[in-house]
Each structure stands twice: as C-alpha cells, then as structure tokens.
Design brief:
Elements lengths: L5 H9 L7 H7 L1 H19 L10 E4 L3 H4 E3 L3 H7 L4 H19 L1 H11 L4 H12 L6 H11 L6 H6 L9 H29 L3 H9 L4 H26 L6 H7 L5 H4 L2 H11 L3 H23 L17 H7 L29 H4 L5 E3 L6 E3 L11
Helix pairs in contact: 5-17, 6-11, 7-11, 8-11, 9-14, 11-13, 13-17, 13-18, 14-16, 16-17
Amino acid sequence: MTQTSPAAARQLDAIPVHRKSLSQRLRENWQLYVMLLIPVVLTIVYKYWPMYGIQIAFRDFKASRGITGSEWVGLYWFERFFTAPNCVRMIKNTVLLSLYSLLWSFPIPIILSLCINQLRFAKFKRVVQTVLYAPHFISTMVICGMIKIFLSPSGGLLNLILGTSVDFLSESTAFRTIYVASGIWQEAGWGTIIYMACLAAVDTSLYEAAKIDGASMFQRILNIDIPELVPMIVLQLIMSVGNLMNVGFEKVLLLQTELNKATSDIIAVYVYEQGIINAKYSYSTAVGLFNTVSTSSCSSSSTASPRRRQTSALCKGGEPLWQKTLQHPVKRSPAVCPIRSATSFWWSSAPPSCSSWPIRCTTFWWRPSQTPTTCTPARPSCCPASSP
C-alpha cells in the first residue's frame, strides 16, 4: 500500500478550508444552542448575578438604605478582621484542619481501591464496596449525633473500651483527630469510585504478561495499577489543594463547644456566626470574600505546576512490556500511534538489539499507514536507520 509523501501531505495542508460563519452555524444547529442557553442562563442568574452583592463588603450596609445607598467604607471591614484578636487563630485552625484532612484522607481511597481490585470473588467484592459506600449517604447531622454518642463520657463506646470517662469533645487537642477520623470513615469508600473506574480500564493482557514474567502481586500493583492511577491522583491532589481554605462549617459547627474552640474556631463558622446570628452582613461578607480569594489563589497556584515530561525510551532499560508500556508512554504525534502490546510475548531481562528488531518486535510496535484501520510494522526511533 502506497503512503502519502511528505510533499503531498504539505500540499493537502495548504488547501484553504472554508469555515462557516456564526450565523450559519446558529441556523443549522439552533436546537443545540437553545439547549445550551438554559444552563448558561441558570449560571448567570444564580452564580454571576449574586456577585453584585459583594460590594457590601466595602460598604456599611443598612437594609433600609439598600446596597447602593449604604455608605462606602473601603477596606474598613478587612482591617477590622485582620486586627481582630482571634484572626490568626482562625486562619491557623482552618489551614491545619484542611492540611490534616488532606494528609490522612487523601491516600486512604487509593489504598482501598488497590486492595478491592485484588479481590477475585465478585459477590464479596460488591458487598465490600456497598459497605464502604454506605457512610457517604448518612447526613452530617446524623454523623455528628453518632460521634457524640460514641464519645459520650457516660456510656460512650470508646470510653467503655478504654475503661475511662473522658469527654473527648471537650478536649481541644482531640478535636482535629475526631474531625479527620470521622471524615475518613464517611468519605473513604466513596472516594474509591473514581480510582476503581481507572483500574477497570487497565488492559488485562498486562496482568497476563506480568504473571508470565513471574511478577508477584505487589510488583503488579507497583508497576501496573499505580502508574495507571497516577494521572487521576495528580488531578485529585490539585483539586484538593485548591480547596485548602474551603473547610465545610456544618460538622465543625455541630461538634464545636466552648471548651474546644481553641482548635475548632475556623473562618467558615465565624462567617456564619457574624452574618446569620449577629446580622453583621458587611463584616461577614468581607471575611467570606477573603476566604474565597484565598481558596482561588490556592487553586490557581496548584494548577500552575509544571507538566510532567513524557519520554518514550522504547529501547532504554530492560523492563518487561507490562512495565515499559505504562512507565514510558510514547509521545503522541501524527506520525506515531500509541503502543500496542501482544498478550504475553516480551523479554524479561534485556530488549532485543536493533539488528533483530524486525524479527522480534514486529508484533508489538506499530505506526499507522495511510488507511486508518491498518498498521504496518516500524522500528523504534532509537534504532539507527541503517539497521534492518
């Protein structure tokens, strides 16, 4: 089969493409644009239009005068917050509570998904997943009630096991542990769903090749499962770091007491108390705006991390195919298609030399020919052009 020469390809690329105007696309696909109009309008009404009220953070808002009629005070409410005696404590508690939750809660779903993926009995696997998912559907109010019952100094489960009568919720040093541990119990199982979906997409031929090469279960997890999860882990980590200052106030508010405020006093609860309970709308809006800007800054900084470098390294090292396929992905380009592997044929000690490439490697590495449905064998890019 003849392939298109580079000169012919350049001539094809030079042919001008006549694009349709916006009005033509609107007339042809007006049904799709009408469907798109509904979520756009809802987003504008419920997300963007309320931003008009942010200006009360810079005004001395009075309900009788309205937003525009209230006096403009500039950064007065922000100065008042930053000079408040409990400002540093609230920022510190918010950051530490979020960091501890990220540190302990983030790896648990990954470990659980790797363990569940090794279960071979389908019924038992479904039962385990159902048991782990169930706590996610329990409301925060019920969770906090259960925590208070379990940690009660009189008849609480934990005190019965330890043989003590300690009111753990009144201990400021125990609040973060209680918050993080209850969060892990409630959300760890639910967090495994996305990782289980990634593991379900792994080609089973990689496991077969690894078993033939003599890889243990730990080696299969280390070289097949974990590399497959790395992109999703990075994405989830970026999203988690972006919400570093965004700690939900419901559980903190329900578990908070006067005795544990040293560690449970966070910005979200403070905004609720000042805005809803004390009716200090301008002050609470200013504090909430500061928290939102901080969260946006964390999100922007986390997404600005450098991209990972990807190298093909087809002839580097002596890893088996089931390791090489995931650890050294081929950089996609119009000239090279992704790696395709056979079921179980590869080397486990050293790759074949370039001289034996057409005989040993024809089944494994492919370059697309002119017809999209067929492929023709091609040598790796690291082999010299003079080799057979």
